[in-house]
Amino acid sequence: MCQVPSWIKTRTGEIVFLTDKDVIRFHENKGTPINWDNYTGHSGIQCVYSGIEGKHKEGFPCPKEILNAMLSGKMREIIRCAENIQDFPKEFLSVLTKLSTDENSHVRCGVAGNPNTSKSVLTKLSTDENSHVRCGVAGNPNTSKSVLAKLSTDEDWGVRCGVAENPNTSKPVLAKLSTDEDSYVRGGVAENPNTSKSVLAKLSTDEDSYVRGGVAENPNTSKPVLAKLSTDEDSYVRYGVAENPNTSKPVLAKLSTDEDSYVRCGVAENPNTSK
Q: May I ask the CATH class of domain 86-169?
């Protein structure tokens, strides 16, 4: 699967790309079945238009004629095989809505992860049977707080992790997820800039260094908590403190002599470090 749209710009300025009709006609002449995955990229264009030469281009923005073909449904099958549905721009709102009911879970995943997908479509996808689709909704910044609250109790840890990392998740929901049995979920809460200082303080003593490291990197973590974490036994945690712009100058000064070179590098790169 490749970036859609893909096109070739010839030396004369001609834009060459594929529509579903082009691919269907090509295979009708050959008498062979179609594998649409083969026609999302430049190799597919060169297969249909043998000998075509020019600059290979892909993604957005794209030429107007390609955009019109995509929006008018002339490239529906090719779009279904795209690996970048989550990157389709806002002009594709109607296309995303149609694709949200596609039988292929990969397609629905792309729609679920696209920040331009409407809240109403994301709400429907939040109950999808496929956990990967629900994960996409959980991590989408356009997903409503009420839907995120429901997904925070999902049986799949990956979905809960998406909610924990989403900056749109409410503080009360983050507080509940901070006690989740899965360390990756707690780590997501620790890294979320919307997590309250009080919750971060509790997570700073978590048994998992991944979680403590998230707290150390969070710009919302208080200076006293950062000072305590600066002596953590795990260098990953100390590195997070060294990088944090909220870390005090005295703490940075102590970390500048840390035994771990990565920690010292973090101090050197911190804009708050004394010159």
A: mainly alpha
